[in-house]
Amino acid sequence: MQIRGSRPGYRALLVAAVLASGATLAWFARADAAPPAATPSLDGIALAAPDAAAVGVPSSPEAWGGIRNGDQPTLSDRVVSYRIAASLDPVKHLVSGRQQLSWRNRSAVPVRSIYVHLYMNAFEGEGSSFFTEQRRRGERFRSGAGMDDGEWGHIALRSVSQGGAAVPWRFVQPDGGPATDHTVARLDLPEAVAPGASTTLDMAFTTQLPRVIARTGYYGSFHLVAQWFPKIAVLELPGERGATAPRWNAHEFHMESEFYADFGSYDVSLTVPKGYTVGATGELQGAPSEKDGMLTHRYVQHDVHDFAWTADKRSGRPLVETWTGPGSPTVTVQVLYPAEYEASAKPAMKAAKDSLAYFSRMLGPYPYRTLTVVIPPYNAQEAGGMEYPTFITASGYARVPSGSLAEYELDAVTIHEFGHGYFYGILASNEFEEPMLDEGLNAYWENRMMRERRQQVYPAPAFLKRIGVDPGFEGFDFMRLAAPRDRPLDAPGQNAWQRLQGIGPVYSRSAIVMRDLEERIGSEAMERGFKEYYRRWKFRHPGLADLREALADGSGERAAVEQVFAQQVYAAMRVDDKVAKLSSEEELPLAGTRLVDGKRIEASQAEVDKRIAARRAQWNKANPNAGEGRGPFPWRTEVTVRRDGAAVPQTLVVRFADGSSETVEWRAASPDEKWRTFSWVKPARAVSAELDPRRSHYLDVNKLDDSRSITPDRSASTRWTSDAAALFQLILSLIATV
Q: In the chain, pLDDT over 70 holds for what percent of residues?
């Protein structure tokens, strides 16, 4: 998902940069009362803790059936199966559905109580956890789209049965949210599901779509139907993401949380009025069947953990192409778009196909046969910038000039949402508890791909471009600007809903953490590490410790990986190194006494000055073209570097007037080492001293204090000030359009 505002684009991210230096938003803590205790389940299986977050213990090798190496008959260890028949009333924006949900008990204990997510109830009223968090924080989701009278949404369970017997159910609040939150329900089964056995639940439901809001809804005839059906939670077993006993992972739908589900199969029949263009997760099974002016479209997709679809009678003619790559099936790529954004269709197609090639090369082959890109219509921006298996939504523009901000944003969003197909989709991390594994890693890879394409953003308004002011910036520069560096308060590994500085740093700071790790260990090592992560954990559900171990083993740089995770994943440590002092003085003859052949000889200051002058004259005559900072006497240069944060490996380069330089590595002898002085005696005076000359540490609070010069030099400050001015000009210009 993109967090980036009404584009959805870089606007909200840039506005957030203004606030990034300090705490911006407080999580709605219930200080007045402890969360109510959950009613015990019939089988005694516990729920995941309300504050569950970063997992520090690697999962067992057998977790979720072990590594999927291609020898198994299916891509994933399919746990669930959904057979859904649904029809859309496009006037009432109502989906009526029936589903057969088959679930396999992987545990060694009988299961009597199961949990299902009813995500759409986040939008039934202001009493949900979603809107309660908004209200207590005093903010809105992404672009700020709200709900007016008559625009609410909900999902209603009409009936649930197991083998013909009615299944009683009740709403629960696993995270201690308000009793008016109805996004999780517990079903108490008439018949227990034995270890290794499966059960099938027959369910009838209706889903009222809201006016388009966070990731779902309608606008006019456009419908993005997502998180729309009763969806079973994940039963985690011992050895999986830190679990020591079977537990249900079933969190409420928080304002800044997303999703987590088991892999399985989806067989979904969608009935919509004739004349509507339909796109969905998976492969269309033959031509739609027609009855009474309605068309039924059947889609099937195995080895995914969600299903979303769209229907609109205003769509243009779909743009359809194919892509092939090593290890992947032939992929049919289609772009669905409204007429007003036809100009965005071809750029979105190119970005999607480029993403297929890039992520397949960098991580592993794309395993599915379809990819659908949906460009929402005008006024439905909140449906944009979202990901579902084989199905993503992008952003739309009436014009996409080459080199424009629109071009950059359209490409970045399409690439970002496709990347989710790997981190949210194939790797299937828990977005509730460890959002860094999806949003953070995906933000890193999005910007890495844009960097490889040499694609910069040129944000200057047209009137500045006309006078030649058109600075370009890389995506990682935006990430650095947005990331809280001076006072980071939330570890990237923290869960999605208990964050003082909001969800933004999960994107920005995580991307910079990974970028800085790549600078430290090298691009090839980083790529080996991520390929190993994909190899081990595709079609499973890794935790942060599993990422750490895969990167450490795959890269061969365990010490560096472990240090970065300790400092910047499980914690959020300030990085702030600087050149505190630079001096370079001639070592001249000194007045006083000394022993010569056993006799003490005194040299007065006047005599010493005379000798110095004579030596200088002689040297200048012999070296008439020597520049300033050279002479007959050596120079002692001292550089003191200081540390006001976490220990990171640093490089110091000192340049001298004769064109020579000295490079030293600062590796702290202990975490408590806060400064060090380096010294040299050279035949020339120092010109400058610079820490981090390759700009490897984007987490550093202030890059302006990384260098000093003997003679005051405003070039660095001028450059950085100009860059900052351009960025703030961008922020102000975009604020005006929000």
A: 90
